[in-house]
């Protein structure tokens, strides 16, 4: 499945630099607002050390990881919802992504102009969140008006939706975000497909200076608290350091990480966090030709997982030969795992688990 994470924030907070580091591409990055006008797109592989081990076990010719597409969206400014700084165009780009990576500037640098001429991370976050909420408010007012007309004509679905939409409209008017409105699962199901910016899950990326790394938790504590209260996640990064790491050889990078007692780069943590933010899991397939990771939503059933490989496999699903990655690698082979009773035949109602290694039987 194709997934997009939009990188947003005020101008000059490090969005394009992060994009370049993530994708190892050369999106233009410069010290003035609106360097990025048309979105830059880059496909990034999701790190998964399990694939290497599976490939060794199966003697696979090829390894194919799962991917996420990152979109570098231009810097937003106050009154973007009214078109300031080409705001309407940029907001439409955000509307198309599945999740938001919101870059928040913490680093101090006199050579890089801040659009507000001061470093105030929570104020910057509030500026962006307000613009998204105001844009949503304009959208929801039209939706409420239309739904109200339908409800008056005795449309049953509209009559059920209207009170929830009015509740959402009030919440947005008070400066809230749609994703942190207290709704039941049934109520949320009725609005989850609305084209609202503030319904999208958000990962707040604290862009730290090198001299701030030692006090990371203390420095980003207010952002961490804010993220938690808005159903988001906060991730500290020094984007400058991460960019430098991408320029090292694999061996040099390992030495650097070891010196800091790290087992993965900040970019790897960001990619994995984005994947988790979208409530996704990975199932695996392996054989002599290929070991591959596949992306599916959490709580997907076995036929839906099969459908990620080919629609015919979902339509003609019979069963799924399934073994957990941990059991398979511990056993050392399919034959050994089967002898231990760890390879199972799962049917149409099986809920796929992260790390399941699956072989689908189907007939069309």
Descriptive report:
This protein has helices spanning 15-23, 50-58, 87-95, 121-152, 156-173, 185-191, 216-229, 239-246, 250-259, 266-277, 302-309, 311-315, 325-331, 334-339; strands at residues 4-8, 40-45, 62-64, 67-72, 99-105, 202-207, 233-237, 280-286, 290-297, 317-324, 344-346, 356-362. The two termini are 22 Å apart. With 364 residues, it is an alpha/beta fold. α1 (15-23) runs parallel beside α8 (239-246) and α4 (121-152) packs antiparallel against α5. The protein is 42% helix and 20% strand.
Radius of gyration: 23 Å
Helix-strand sequence: EHEHEEHEHHHEHEHHHEEHHEHHEE
What is the arithmetic mean of pLDDT? 87
Order of the strands making up the biggest sheet: 2-4-1-5-6-7
User: How many helical elements?
Assistant: 14
**Share of helix, binned:** 40-55%
Instruction: Describe the global form.
Output: flat
Uncertain residue segments: 25-37, 83-87
Task: Let me know the number of strands.
Answer: 12
Main beta-sheet strand count, sense and barrel state? 6 strands, mixed
Q: Which class do the helix and strand fractions yield? A: alpha/beta
Q: Beta-strand level of the residues, as a percent range?
A: 15-25%
Oligomer: single chain
- Could you tell me how far the N terminus lies from the C terminus, measured between alpha carbons in angstroms? 22 Å
